[in-house]
Amino acid sequence: MKGKINKYFIALIPPEPLLTQVRKMKEEVFALVASKGALRSPAHITLHMPFEWSENKEQKLIQTLSEYCFNSNEIKIKLNGFNVFEPRVIFIDVNSNELLNHLEKELSVFMAMQLNLFNQRDSLRAFHPHITIAFRDLNKNKFYSAWEKFKHQEMKSEFSATSFCLLKSDGDQWKIHHEFKFKVKTEQMK
């Protein structure tokens, strides 16, 4: 018997108070143009786009992800201003970061090899780390109205990421389902 199919994705989640600060920005967008798509998930930097997975194999997913090792125990993330994917997405820009790029690429390969899950991003566009504050339900008029509010605002912040999270959809909201602390790779004994 096949189990229920759930939706998941993998992301870095900023700590408080940044998490609440971004939530308030999403609420500002909602108040301004009634765009609520970004309110369905906590602030995050997507590492692996949403995918479907059988609920009866969820423990295998969690166990496999818990075995993933990275080459650092933290990544310094710097946020710098607002930007857009015109005409649908407004986001907080993340400074280019070689370690973050490496994590996304390495984790995508790991998931493909270990779980036969392929990151949809690979076929769509290059990794552009960001924290979305408005998307999906923005039409062009709403987009430009919301963008006027944010395009000249300053946004500078930073945090240290020491883990990544598996988020799970309940059909309406994305919630943090499991957190995985970075495990540093150990060199093979010769």
Strand-helix topology:
Layout: E1 5-12, H1 18-33, E2 45-54, H2 58-66, E3 75-85, E4 89-94, H3 98-115, H4 121-124, E5 130-134, H5 140-150, E6 156-161, E7 163-169, E8 174-181
In short, what is this structure?
This protein has 190 residues and is of the alpha+beta class. It is built from five helices and eight strands, in the order βαβαββααβαβββ. The mean pLDDT is 92.
Architecture overview:
A four-stranded antiparallel β-sheet has the order 2-1-7-8, with helices on one face. The termini are far apart. A hairpin with a 3-residue loop joins strand 3 (75-85) and strand 4. The protein has 190 residues and is of the alpha+beta class. It has one domain: Cyclic phosphodiesterase (Cyclic Phosphodiesterase, Chain: A, Alpha-Beta Complex). It has helices at 18-33, 58-66, 98-115, 121-124, 140-150, and strands spanning 5-12, 45-54, 75-85, 89-94, 130-134, 156-161, 163-169, 174-181.
Q: CATH first level: which class?
A: Alpha Beta
Q: What is the total number of structural domains? A: 1
The CATH superfamily is: Cyclic phosphodiesterase
| Strand order of the biggest β-sheet | 2-1-7-8
N-to-C series of helices and strands = EHEHEEHHEHEEE
Summarize this structure as a short list of keywords or feature phrases.
31% helix, Cyclic Phosphodiesterase, Chain: A, four-stranded antiparallel beta sheet, 8 strands, alpha+beta, 190 residues
